[in-house]
Amino acid sequence: MNEKRLAKILKEAAVDSKLKTGYKEVMQYIKGTKLIVLSTSLPNDSEMQLKKVAEESGIEIIEYSGNSALLGRLCSVSYGTSVVSLKNVSEEEISELKK
What we know:
CATH architecture: 2-Layer Sandwich
CATH class: Alpha Beta
Low-confidence stretches: none
Number of strands: 4
Oligomer: single chain
Structural class: alpha+beta
Number of domains: 1
Largest sheet: 4 strands, mixed
């Protein structure tokens, strides 16, 4: 995974207020989501539930190797977040991130 590219996409989304952070918020606003980024801090049961919903909805998932504090920093937010969802990411950007 290209971490620099992921950071750039997440920062742009944060500036435009186009990302949702946290398990409950991501689940609430799952409709229209194109990409979900998971940190290692997400509990297994929540991860399984999120992956199930994403698979049913055709949403891509990327597993970020850092914890919630690092993912929060990548998003330029002042708090840690175990999961982030994006709606304004292109298919090209998703495929680039999955490499």
